[in-house]
Design a protein that fits this description.
The complex is a heterodimer of chains A (334) and B (129). Chain A has 334 residues and is an alpha/beta fold. Chain A is 39% helix and 15% strand. In chain A, helix 2 links the parallel strand 2 (36-40) and strand 3 (60-64). In chain A, helix 6 packs across helix 10 and helix 7 (249-258) packs across helix 10. The N and C termini of chain A lie far apart (52 Å). The model of chain A has no long low-confidence stretch (mean pLDDT 95). Chain B has 129 residues and is of the alpha+beta class. Chain B has one domain: Alpha-Beta Complex (Sufe protein. Chain: A). Chain B has six helices and three strands; from the N terminus they run αβββααααα. Chain B has helices at 7-14, 62-75, 80-85, 88-94, 102-105, 109-128; strands spanning 27-33, 38-47, 50-59. Chain B starts with 6 loop residues before the first helix and ends with a helix. The chains are: A alpha/beta (334), B alpha+beta (129). The A-B interface holds A 246-251, 253-254, 257-258, 267-270, 272, 274, 276, 286-288, 291, 323-327 and B 1-2, 5, 10, 13-14, 16, 19, 30, 34-41, 57-65, 101-102, 105-106.
């Protein structure tokens, strides 16, 4: 599915472990090279918190900004990637706003500094083609459940010759890189899910892109002061992230839920931390703008009728909440 | 998502009571902040030291809207003194409780009511002097 050799794949208990293993394993093994780690500002919490942990252990970590579409600032990356940089972590695509990163360019810049590139491909795998060799990726994280496989299993691609140490020590399974009895049923399930994803990806992507684009175009056309988050074309086939001014995401989700539509929001009110999504802040949204964002994610079972249904209920939901909101300008309600 | 809230919260979210503005309000209370994700405005009309009419407008999550609706229902017809005694806990209890994480961030409605009453008292004080 990603163009790796079988011996370059290690199975883990999930993407979080893969990410921890990639960053900690490479950082600790390559201290002789330096002490510096790079990551993009819109990485998943698994990357951000692993980097925080490494920073507490004495590594220097630097966040690389993204533009208003969520695309990494290559020039900033070039400036920060230096002799002492050991590894950079940049996601293939962001699952929240859908933006696809220019991984080949990123790989060139990172390799010029003699550093390794880890790519979190959890959101991208099965959605868009990935070629670890052609893309120049040294380590790549995959999750099974994001490929419609079973939970509790993930994988880490480790390019042959990558210097790293294990996170989990023990009886030497997975060539000594990940000890512990293999989760065979999980691995078989993940392999099957990956096979299906690979075979169906092209047809699936064509279908999803048409659903996605119709939803985006018609929502933006029918609801005033609604805006697309992320890039219009450099975007995952299954993702439409749209924000609505003057309303808050959780109340939108609740209202859609009452109509039988499940979407997600990174609004502060749906999170454990009460902070709005770091991804939306990184693309330059104000807090009050970030609060009104909804992520529509399409899957295998969605059809054009689902898009029609969302389009039939969403405008009145937004209108109702805007009537309740003290922020809505009068002219928007007329 | 729905499962997080009591049936009463959902009912008030679906059919909020006393939603709107009072253009010639005697007192207006604004609490919260759109940056934090919750903001509400409470309007009151006062007659003979009683809250004769009350309306609200709220930007925020389901809990913020439901607590606003509930506080207007609890306060309507009450004396100003009774209104000032209505607490965040009274509002949450009347809604059969709120999820713990919502108790602070979204349970601003009682504060909004107090702010509206204080606004009225301040204006009234100003007229007398």
């Amino acid at each position: 599915m990603i163009g790796a050799k079988p011996e370059e794949i290690i199975f883990t208990c999930g993407a979080t472990e893969s990410i921890n293993m990639a960053l900690k394993g490479v950082a600790h093994r390559n201290k002789s090279k330096g002490d510096h780690i790079l990551y993009s500002a819109i990485e998943h919490m698994s990357v951000l918190n692993t980097c925080k942990s490494l920073a507490r252990q004495g590594f220097r970590v630097t966040s690389i900004p993204v533009d208003r579409y969520g695309i990494i600032d290559i020039e900033a990356l070039r400036k920060e990637a230096q002799d002492k940089t050991i590894i950079a972590s940049v996601m293939y695509a962001n699952g929240e706003i859908g933006t696809i990163e220019p991984i080949r360019e990123v790989a060139n810049v990172v390799h010029e500094a003699g550093a390794y590139l880890h790519v979190d491909a959890v959101a991208a795998a099965g959605q868009i083609p990935i070629d670890v060799k052609g893309d120049g990726i040294d380590l790549l994280t995959l999750s099974s459940n994001d490929l419609y496989g079973p939970k509790g299993v993930g994988a880490l691609y480790i390019k042959e010759g990558t210097r790293m140490e294990p996170l989990i020590h023990g009886g030497g399974q997975e060539r000594g890189l990940r000890s512990g009895s293999e989760n065979v049923p999980g691995i078989v399930g993940m392999a099957k899910a990956a096979e299906i994803a690979r075979d169906e990806m092209e047809a699936e992507a064509t279908k999803l892109v048409s659903l996605r684009d119709r939803l985006i175009e018609e929502v933006l056309a029918s609801i005033r002061e609604s805006y697309l988050n992320g890039h219009r074309t450099q975007r995952l086939p299954n993702n439409a992230n749209i924000r609505f001014s003057y309303v808050e995401g959780e109340s939108l989700i609740l209202s859609l839920d009452m109509e039988g539509v499940q979407v997600s929001s990174a609004s502060a009110c749906t999170s454990k931390t009460l902070e709005p999504s770091h991804v939306l802040i990184a693309i330059g949204l104000k807090h009050e703008e970030a609060h009104g964002a909804l992520a529509f994610t399409f899957g295998k079972e969605n059809t054009g009728a689902d898009v029609d249904y969302v389009l039939s209920v969403l405008p009145s939901i937004v209108k109702r909440l805007r009537m309740i909101s003290p922020l809505t300008p009068k002219e928007l309600l007329s | 998502m729905k499962a997080m809230y009591s049936a009463k919260v959902m009912e008030h979210f679906r059919n909020p009571r006393n939603m709107g503005e009072i253009p010639d309000a005697d007192g207006v209370g604004v609490v919260g902040n759109p940056v934090c994700g919750d903001m509400m405005t409470i309007y009151i009309k006062v007659k003979e030291d009683r809250i004769a009419d009350i309306k609200f407008k709220t930007f925020g999550c389901g809990a913020a809207i439901a607590t606003s609706s509930m506080v207007t229902e609890l306060a309507k017809g009450k004396t100003l003194e009774e209104g000032l005694r209505l607490s965040r806990k009274d509002v949450a209890d009347s809604l059969d409780g709120l999820p713990p994480i919502k108790m602070h961030c979204s349970n601003l409605a009682a504060d909004g009511l107090h702010a509206a009453i204080e606004d009225y008292l301040k204006k009234k004080g100003g007229e007398k002097s």
